[in-house]
DNA sequence: ATGCTATGCCGTCAAAGTAC
DNA sequence: GTACTTTGACGGCATAGCAT
C-alpha cells in the first residue's frame, strides 16, 4: 500500500479515502490522543514535508505534505504559513527516521514501527502493557542521532508560557529554598531536606509534563495538517483521473 | 434546574532513556 | 551506578453541551 505520485504533487493516500474534508481532521485528532508513544512521535516547529507512517499495524503509507505548494503548518505557539520548496523536501521511508529541512529551523520526525495498541486486551494490566510496549527514543536521542544535539533547545519555538512558567518555577523554587533553609537542625534537617527535594522534583516534573503536553499538541496539529493536505491531494488525483478517463473515452469513441 | 457525558487540563506516579 | 529527564497512564477537577 505504498501508492504515491510525485510528478504533479498528487498523492493517493488510503488515509484520505472514504472521508470527506472537514470530518477527518477532528476524527484523527481524537484518535491521536490515544496513540501510544511507541507508535510514532514528532518534534517539529514548522514544515514537515514528507513522511511515512505505519497504518493499521503492518501497512505503511507514504505521503507528502505539499512539496510544491503552499503548506500551512501549525505550531504550538502560532499558526505559521510556510512556503515549501523542493529544497526542504526529505523523504522518510523507514521507521525511526529523522527529517530535517535544509533551512534554518529544525524539524525532527520520528516514525516508529510497532504493533497497534489494539493488540492489548482489556484484561491486561497497565503494568503488563508497559512491559510490552517499547518506549520510543526521546527527542534528545533523536537529535543526537542527527549529530545536531546542540541546536535542539535553541530551535524549538520559544514559548511565552514556558518562559513565564520558568520564572515562576525559579521563584517557587527559591521560596521553597528559603523556607527550608530556616528549618530545623539535627534530624529535622534530614527530614526537611527530603521534603525539599521532593518539592523540587514535583515542581520540575510539573513543568516537564507541561512541556511534554505542548509537544504532543504540536504533534497532533501536524498530523491534522497532514490529513487536510492528503485530502486535498486525494481530491486532486480523483479529479485528474476523472479528466483522463474522459479524455480517453473521447479518443476511443 | 438537574443529571449525564464528553472533553480538556493539570498534577502526580512510574518506568525507560539519558548524562555524567 | 546514580541523578536527572521524558512521557504514558491515571485520577481529579472544571466546563460545555445535551437530554430530561
TrEMBL record:
SUPFAM superfamilies: Leucine zipper domain (SSF57959). Residues 8-22 have a biased composition (Polar residues). It comes from the Eukaryota. Its main location: nucleus. Keywords: Coiled coil, DNA-binding, Nucleus, Transcription, Transcription regulation. Residues 195-246 form the BZIP domain. It holds the Pfam family pKID. Residues 213-247 form a coiled coil. SMART domains: BRLZ. InterPro entries: bZIP, bZIP_sf, CREB1-like_pKID, Leuzip_CREB. Residues 106-165 form the KID domain. Residues 1-27 are annotated as: Disordered. It is found in: Nucleus. PANTHER family: CYCLIC AMP RESPONSE ELEMENT-BINDING PROTEIN B. This is Cyclic AMP response element-binding protein B isoform X9. It comes from Neodiprion lecontei (Redheaded pine sawfly). The gene is LOC107220912.
